[in-house]
């Protein structure tokens, strides 16, 4: 279960890169491909095994002038999805 | 509008030291003399990257039989492709594995035939194979690469399912794929020995559901269901010609690895026709793409964009017609017969395995 205090980190072997064909960043893992939209791309940029969910949300809320509580829910939801898919530990 | 493919399966060779009775390679294997060289695969990789492919699966047969495997992985990695190795692992050692990781390999998938050595070695018909697999899996588990264990399950090893899950976790696997046998090709010859009873399948479903909960966030468990007992078919390959292409050892480009069983389809070869041309315009890729080819009961089905009428090769094998609804579907007129067949064979089943031979 992902909380505000969870600290996501990439699992080994996971790659993140820009894909010119889809003009988007992509996440690549075992039998998993995720094409990232702008928000997902911004979240994953901050996954570094140090930032907590709360810290990522705080930084993004500032950057996009958005409501921090709402961003926190979005970040936690997306990190949960990455956990389910085996792309991060948290 | 067809989207760019996500993945390419590179079947480097059909040679394999194991003789699994459910082998998914075609009955008619490509001989070593017709295998393609390093330069051929380099151009396939270049064209795939240019086409938008993101992942390349080095497969076979046994891909580690190819002396140029590390060079191909390095080439794919240099082109930005995520490199995945699908292997039995019995021919690997620490030094070879380190060279593959050095070349950029991101993910290693190792097959296991069971949890206990005697039975697993009997199923693969390869002495000490299981012990070798565990040794290599442990090395991958300590490496910087992702580790998947791939367990094909059937009546000869389903009782070991819990142990296979525990074994995967103990080996530090990131992912475990549990796949019931798909009854095409060689596996059809062994259906009586491999088909589990409905009760055994239901027990397995429950074990997998529990394990997914228990290992949530630590080990992903993907589960390929045994569709003879299902009510609706699986979306084979996520839909024909929708996400991936398969290049065989002689360079033929297929929408799925079993597509050669379907009569009337002609496949182009990489090197002669570009992958881009094949992906977007090849008649074999267009043949079952989307829903335009369907008949009833598929045409009016609410799930036609979900499962795409199921597997074309299975429709051919069980209904004698690749255009028919996959007979595992409850809407197929053949569904009752398929279910009765599975039930009868699973109850009458025996343990006599016909091993895969060239």
Task: Describe it.
The complex is a heterodimer of chains A (90) and B (358). Chain A is α+β, with helices and mostly antiparallel strands and 90 residues long. In chain A, 41% of the residues lie in helices and 21% in strands. Chain A has three helices and five strands. In chain A, the strands form two sheets. In chain A, strands 2-3-4 form a three-stranded antiparallel beta sheet, with no helix packed on it. In chain A, a hairpin with a 4-residue loop joins strand 2 (15-19) and strand 3 (24-29). The longest helix of chain A is centred in the last third of the chain and has 17 residues, at 68-84. The model of chain A has no long low-confidence stretch (mean pLDDT 96). With 358 residues, chain B is α/β, with parallel strands linked by helices. Chain B has helices spanning 38-51, 69-78, 94-103, 117-124, 129-141, 161-170, 185-189, 191-194, 198-214, 275-281, 283-286, 304-307, 312-319, 335-348, and strands spanning 7-11, 55-59, 82-87, 107-112, 146-153, 175-180, 220-224, 244-247, 253-254. Chain B has a nine-stranded mixed beta sheet. Chain B starts with 6 loop residues before the first strand and ends in a 10-residue tail after the last helix. Chain A binds chain B through residues 11-15, 17, 19, 21-22, 26, 28-31, 33, 83-86, 89-90, and chain B through 4, 6-7, 51-52, 54-55, 80, 82, 84, 106-107, 109, 143-146, 148, 174-175, 177, 216-220, 222.
* SSE pattern of chain B, N- to C-terminal: EHEHEHEHHEHEHHHEEEHHHHH
Strands of the largest sheet of chain A, in order across it? 2-3-4
Overall form of chain B: globular
> What integer is the average pLDDT of chain B?
95
Number of strands of chain B: 9
Identify the biggest protein-protein contact and residues per side. Answer: A-B, 21 and 27 residues
Number of helical stretches of at least 4 residues of chain B: 14
Low-confidence stretches of chain B: none
Largest sheet of chain A: 3 strands, antiparallel
Strand proportion of chain B, as a percent range, falls in 5-15%
The strand order across the widest sheet of chain B is: 7-6-5-4-3-2-1-8-9
Total beta-strand segments of chain A: 5
The helicity of chain A comes to 40-55%
What is the structural class of chain B? alpha/beta
Largest sheet of chain B: 9 strands, mixed
| Model regions low in confidence, pLDDT < 50 over at least 5 residues of chain A | none
Cα separation of the termini of chain A: 9 Å
